[in-house]
Design a protein that fits this description.
Elements lengths: L3 E7 L16 E2 L2 E2 H11 L4 E6 L3 H8 L5 E5 L6 H6 L2 H4 L5 E6 L7 H14 L3 E7 L7 E5 L5 E5 L6 H4 L3 E10 H8 L14 H9 L4 E7 L10 H21 L3 E2 L5 E3 L4 E2 L4 E2 L3 E3 L4 E2 L4 E2 L4 E2 L4 E2 L4 E2 L4 E2 L5
Parallel strand pairs: 1-4, 1-6, 4-5, 7-11, 12-15, 13-16, 14-17, 15-18, 16-19, 17-20, 18-21, 19-22
Antiparallel strand pairs: 2-3, 6-10, 7-10, 8-9, 8-10
Helix pairs in contact: 7-8
Amino acid sequence: MSERVAIILAAGQSTRMNTKLPKVLHEVCGRPMLEWVIEACRSAGVQRHIVVVGYGKNKIVERYQDTTDVEFVEQPEQKGTGHAVMCCRHLLEGFGGQTLILCGDAPLIRTETLKVLIEKHELDKSAVTLATAVMPEPGGYGRIVRDGYGNIQGIVEHNDCDEKQLAITEVNPGYFCFQTPYLLEALDKIKPNNVKNEYYLTDALHILLHDGHKATAVTAVAAEDAMGVNNRQQLALVGKIMQQRIQQRLMAGGVTIVDPPNTWIDARATIGQDVVIEPFTCISGAVRIGDNCRIGPFAYLHEGADLEPDSVVGVFQELKHAEG
């Protein structure tokens, strides 16, 4: 198996969130956004996670200081995605494996998608591989430009697109897999020659293509998975999608959720087989529920609640830091 490292971009301030908390620490179903990305990488076989921090760096470092496979690099000025990766260069020198580059504010990322990306990268023996998405309304995403044979020719950032390029529906959601020596080679040549005067990571793709290296793009990211979080409205929407995933997983494992839209379950909760969860129940934190329990309606279980099998938490009951 190839060695893999992930660079996760998490330095932005996100003024649209109107927050003093680093954006990637805002929670989605009980977990910080950053944690969803790290966990997806771990499950895809990544051994090291380099998190690029900037705004609120101390809070992020403090949150993960005891996590052995996570290390931090500061981007003192936000001068683009390419610049963020340049800040990590000293940690990549001499590394011959794969480097994934991902966004820390895109918690809907799936391990399965990363595995498809890695598999395509290894199969085609490419210098760089992208996982792309098709979106009927691409908004501000960079557009994927292909030739008549379907080969990727480049990525054009939204602000740099002409009218024809704006009509392209295949976009770059920010899933990259590089062979690290080629990435380092390209970083030396990136120039800030665009509308925002920033260093774009996407220019690394253009440089590698220009130098005769192979680049591949695989359409593997579902449109909803590509969604990043830039404001509170998007945070709420991402949370709703993630909650549906959590409940679908639990129901597939033998849990009855009577009214899914009116139930909220933390991602950290552990729920046994044949549990019945009635409407308007909220399960918050790393709650443990044994088999054959019945919860609600209108029940609220807090962090620390630990229910033995066959327990009942009735109407309008609240349970915290206690065993059932």
